[in-house]
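STRUCTURE REQUEST FORM
Protein name: Peptide chain release factor 3
Source organism: Coprococcus hominis
Requested output: structure tokens
Priority: standard
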Amino acid sequence: MADKNIENEIKKRRTFAIISHPDAGKTTLTEKFLLFGGAINTAGSVKGKANSKYAVSDWMDIEKERGISVTSSVLQFNYEGYCINILDTPGHQDFSEDTYRTLMAADSAVMVIDASKGVEAQTIKLFKVCVMRHIPIFTFINKMDRDARDTFELLDEIENVLGIRTCPMNWPIGSGKEFKGVYDRETKMVDTFEAISTGGAKKAAETQYHIEDQELKDLIGPYLYDQFKEEIELVDGATDEVDLEKVQKGELSPVFFGSALNTFGIDMFLNYFLKMTTPPLGRMSDQGVIDPVTEPFSAFVFKIQANMNKAHRDRIAFMRICSGKFEAGMEVYHAASKRKLKLSQPQQLMAQDRKIVEEAYAGDVIGVFDPGLFSIGDTLTFPGKKYQYEGIPTFAPEHFCRVVQMNTMKRKQFVQGVTQIAQEGAIQIFQEFTAGLSEIIVGVVGVLQFDVLKYRLENEYGCEIRLEPIPYNYIRWVKDPSTDLTKLKRVSDVKKVKDMKGNPLLLFANEWVINQVLEHNEGLELLEFRKN
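Status: completed
Returned output:
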């Protein structure tokens, strides 16, 4: 029988990830959520200039310089009696692995779409991951204060490209300079919009009018008002009714319109979101579904990040609590090493800032000090419970570089740096069969990860490196290390390497060679989605 206090705490939890194509305004929206929860006093502009604040969730120097998120950050705030955990993810496709792992830790997703650009490539990729997990997807169509595409066209595109039905919860009146506000379809009230000159702590002034109010008609003008009334009739007749069951199964996406930069439409979105989402639900393990309320503590590691605090050379393992209550100092069972351990320095993070936590509940994300013991996907349970959550898949790298160390005197720092970054899951390291770590090949899913590797090795470990691209696109596991490649005509297109654990792999330059190898040798399997 679960403790009533634990049950109440878990019911208050909401954990969601924010996903979008780069530049749709995802990090700005995250900041404004924090502003509403009182977690921060002013929101920074993401495209930081020398004299302005940076986004709270972008804490790496490279993020501040480029104005993009390259690593997921975890942010928690309280709002209207709920405890909300936001997982802000990188929008750039080169970091989709990090986003994928973060989505494994979320219970629902908020998809941010730019009103002038509609559904973009990266949104499609991330959306498919959400569909695979059947998690609820909420859509926030952002930047309505700029010229936007036709609203019906945007909804059609979401339905046709992403294959999910939509249900607009509110409706915009105009866009760009003509943007007058949003109409709440449930209350039949219109929130009017007045632009503000900057982001920060300010919020666009809002006045509420009933849809039939004469003042509203005067304010927006007869032409826009008539057009808006026609659109509302069309919306009421042509779009899906809101069906909570379908929303929670991820089959119907509630759509909201607003402007994150002007903090407009965000409170309406948050209030509906909290009403329509569920507290943390049970998760599948190798012993069936684990109930978040009745079962004691359990969690899984979905992210590892080294050097969040340069002064301490620390490594933080981020874990999503799946059931029960966590208390500082408690003993837990680590399934991978089959040993009991105490989680030291448990903390909750606001991007780079952190506070030590005494207790946390199912749905929360905590960071613990990692002495090099944890891997992504590890399960931690209450002693006596020995189950494991489903593993987190790894992606096959598509780009490869030879990494050459410029200063051999810094060998130790180099090995430590590449090993740690590999353990975070940002890169994969391969060695030639005959060579040690003196010459390594690094594989990544997205090219931008090479920039991050170079930047971090130089800034965090003081190692200068040169990256030499090598012409391989595919990689495969080899069950039989003595794979006979002599039957191939173009053996130069194949390279034998091994991973960090010594498992033999093959790198290929083209698909033609892969097909030849597959014909001649049974000892190959695809690398895609191999579990840890």
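Reviewer notes: The first helix runs from residue 4 to 11. The CA atoms of residues 47 and 67 lie 5 Å apart.
Form closed.
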